[in-house]
Amino acid sequence: MPAPVTLLVHGGAGTLTRANLSPAQELEYRDALGQALRAGQSLLLRGASAVDAVVAAVSVLEDCPLFNAGKGSVFTHEGRNEMDAAVMDGATGQAGAVAGVVSVRNPILAAQAVMQQSGHVLLIGQGAEAFAQSQGLAMEGPEYFHTAHRWQQLQAALAHQQVMLDHDGQHPQGQPEPIDRKFGTVGAVALDAHGHLAAATSTGGMTNKMFGRVGDSPLIGAGTYACDATAAVSATGSGEFFMRGVVAHDIAARMAYGGLSLAEATQATVRDKLDATGGRGGVIALDRHGHYQLAFNTEGMYRGVVQGQAEPQISIYRD
Amino acid sequence: MPAPVTLLVHGGAGTLTRANLSPAQELEYRDALGQALRAGQSLLLRGASAVDAVVAAVSVLEDCPLFNAGKGSVFTHEGRNEMDAAVMDGATGQAGAVAGVVSVRNPILAAQAVMQQSGHVLLIGQGAEAFAQSQGLAMEGPEYFHTAHRWQQLQAALAHQQVMLDHDGQHPQGQPEPIDRKFGTVGAVALDAHGHLAAATSTGGMTNKMFGRVGDSPLIGAGTYACDATAAVSATGSGEFFMRGVVAHDIAARMAYGGLSLAEATQATVRDKLDATGGRGGVIALDRHGHYQLAFNTEGMYRGVVQGQAEPQISIYRD
Is B181 an interface residue toward A (CB < 8 Å)? Predict the structure, then answer.
């Protein structure tokens, strides 16, 4: 019996506790994650590819102002929104990514176009913008990406001269805490009806980040990786640690070369490459048998999974 | 007995055959590679770190107009020089990289500054330029990077509407052949007297490349990786294949998780991640015992090695 079509999503990790999120806010996040899961699930049940499913799910999260990607992207130190995204097809090993784009409405669509149309893997900055426009993708001015709560986060971070993550400090008073934890990002991994895997990740970076800083999300092997023989992985967290640890590929390599299961490999990588170095965040990981992991070492991670025709299961906190 | 201090360099791979290179040209390349090796060797023999040795060796190659990095960088389609570089310290797991810089005289020094001073791993474009300038690094106008033979390569590529590699088609008539093989890059790996490893890579990209395209060189795990427990690796070749295969980390992972030796791991990665997919190029790889590999699947690779106080050994062709 073949494994059921499966889709996992994440919407970032951080200091997510019940004390930090009102019931109304929690409902909004659950709603958005559910929409993303259903968008991908409906494609997968109709026989669509894992690539199309992860791109669809990530697009929903990019369009939602709650998450640090697309519309909800945080502001850099200079008050810009610089976004990164990547997608990888586990069936072919093809991959595409963009970094430092400022006017592409859905950076994940630009990453997909890079993969399918450019002959390259990574385009950055104005070159990536020009390519996205040439592909007929929707472009937006800065006002589209300007959301009030992200602007307030930047002002708070500037006042405290600190870099901030996206989901830290959302306590009831609505005043973000200026804590230097650099988490963000949305992502999805999928197994389609043909037995193929794919992974996609999109991020708005860090509040008050240095102009031009790129994290792990758009880097194949660091924040995004997929190979049918091993796993599809999308990461979120303190990007620099995920880059140095080449975390997404590290999980796949422990399976390929060490013979570990998906669960064993994921736990070993989180332990050795994140816990051991001080890196914080999480990963979603999926193999071709439909085994999956939603692993993180933070207080919480916005996350969800759907298999076959079942209802989406969504979680935020550790318990 | 401790392993001798060791330094390997490469200056790019491609269709390098005796028919393509005059004896005078060959001597120039050998001279430059020897200078790079001696610069790093002299540091290593005085107890300097592997990081300082690879940065010094790569800086020499960046300053030499023969190689596609720094001064000798090729032109993009728009007639710009867009450069990338990365360095990784195997002792600490720290890493730094820049991509898409146009006026930093030595991109490898900017990568080192990112690693040591920024708190980040990868800075791109104008942000990377601003950071390099803030660190007091030497900046240059476009005229510094404008070399006649690279400009001719661009004109030939534009005429044929093709992307070109840096070392293909250097046949005696001096007319580059418009062959779409995307090799470039200089790099170094070192083992210092304290038993630590480091890797560094720098590139000017591809002639006639799409504006904003980034290859494997500045991506930790793809073109550059170092970990004392396994290996230091620097790659050169068709960057997109090295990115999809996460080649540098793949060699280290086969050693860490599969128990392979450096030689076995390098050969397996070249076979599975390059030969099997159509990727072309090479890697230099070194472990903490001083075992090393200079592996490539092209006709040739500019390369050299020096161990202890011995004389540098330099090779270009396959035999």
Answer: no
What tens-digit pLDDT sequence spans chain A (319 residues)? Answer: 789 999 999 999 987 888 888 899 899 999 999 999 999 999 999 999 999 999 999 999 999 999 999 999 888 888 888 999 999 999 999 999 999 999 999 999 999 999 999 999 999 999 999 999 999 999 999 899 988 888 888 888 888 766 655 565 443 333 444 333 436 799 999 999 999 999 999 999 887 778 899 999 999 999 999 999 999 999 999 999 999 999 999 999 999 999 999 999 999 999 999 999 999 999 999 999 999 999 999 999 999 999 999 999 999 999 7
**B116–chain A nearest CA distance, Å:** 13
Contact of A115 with B240, CB cutoff 8 Å: no
A198 touches chain B (CB under 8 A): no
Contacts of B130 in chain A (CB under 8 A): 211-212
Q: Determine, for residues A128 and B212 on separate chains, whether the beta-carbon distance falls below 8 Å.
A: yes
Q: How far is CA A99 from the centre of its chain?
A: 14
CB-CB under 8 Å, B127 with A210: yes
Number of H helices, E strands in chain A: 9, 13
Domains of chain B plus CATH, in order, are 6-317 (3.60.20.30)
Give the predicted TM-score (pTM) of the model: 0.93
Distance from CA of B76 to the nearest CA of A (A): 11
- Return the H-helix or E-strand segment holding A180: none
3-state secondary structure of A10: strand
| A185 catalytic residue (yes or no) | yes
Spatial neighbors of A178 by CB under 8 A, at least 6 apart, are A156, A157, A159, A160, A162, A164, A169
Chain A hits for B243, Cβ within 8 Å = 95, 121-122, 220-221
Cβ–Cβ below 8 Å for A246 and B121: no
Dist CA A191 CA B85 (whole Å) = 36
Q: Which is nearest to B107 in space by CA: B134, B80, B71, B141? A: B71
3-class DSSP state of B307: strand
Identify whether the C-beta of residue A234 lies closer than 8 Å to the C-beta of residue A248. Answer: yes
Task: List, as ranges, residues 272-301 from A with C-beta within 8 Å of B.
Answer: 277
CA angle in degrees (0–180, nearest 5) for A248-A253-A255: 105
Which residues neighbour A276 within 8 Å (Cβ) at sequence distance 6 or greater?
Answer: none
Buried b (16+ CB within 10 A) or exposed e, B225-257: bbbbebbbbbbbbbbbbbbbbbbbbbbbbbbbb
User: What is the C-alpha to C-alpha distance for residues B59 and B39, in angstroms, rounded to an integer?
Assistant: 9
Strands in A232-237's sheet, in edge-to-edge order, are A224-226, A232-237, A281-286, A292-296
